[in-house]
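wait is this the right file?? whatever heres the structure
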């Protein structure tokens, strides 16, 4: 009976955090998603559109992560390897830490200060994350030189489609 209760509880709580590939793999962003605000390390507000504009003309990998996310922390060495193997690619890290203090602690603790980091002060549920069907972290997206989505959904930096997408964009 006790085991049955545990299985029941796990199934209920597991429903909220499933890593299912979205049914529609989007190739562009909505206006609402582009207007989503984040904060940089200094607390200055910036929109997704402004971040994309800063990287226009380059291939960009977006890495969604948080310091509390065990899967994200396990993936960090492989994400760093992906970054090291692609020196001509830009990388942006979007944090889903639950507080500004948590964001700052995570940057320090996991040696992320040298990277380009932003934090969703609005929390997980916002126009951008809802639009990109963010249901799991870590999550990786590849953005092409014209700010279109080239690789919509990957949950591991070791997903071979990430590197294939990058290679195809650089041809």
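ok assuming it is, sequence goes like this
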């Amino acid at each position: 009976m006790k085991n049955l209760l545990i299985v029941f509880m796990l199934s209920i709580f597991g429903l909220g955090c499933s890593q299912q590939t979205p049914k529609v793999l989007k190739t562009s962003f909505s206006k609402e998603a582009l207007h989503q605000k984040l904060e940089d390390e200094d607390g200055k507000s910036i929109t997704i559109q402004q971040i994309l504009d800063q990287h226009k003309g380059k291939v960009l990998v977006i890495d969604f992560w948080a310091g509390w996310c065990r899967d994200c922390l396990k993936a960090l060495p492989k994400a760093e390897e992906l970054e090291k193997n692609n020196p001509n690619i830009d990388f942006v890290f979007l944090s889903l830490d639950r507080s500004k203090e948590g964001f700052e602690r995570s940057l320090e603790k996991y040696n992320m200060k040298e990277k380009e980091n932003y934090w969703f002060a609005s929390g997980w549920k916002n126009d951008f994350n809802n639009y990109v069907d963010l249901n799991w972290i870590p999550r990786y997206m590849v953005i092409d030189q014209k700010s279109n989505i080239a690789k919509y959904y990957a949950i591991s930096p070791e997903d071979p489609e990430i590197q294939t997408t990058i290679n195809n964009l650089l041809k």
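Residues 3-17 have pLDDT under 50 and may be disordered. so i think its the right one actually
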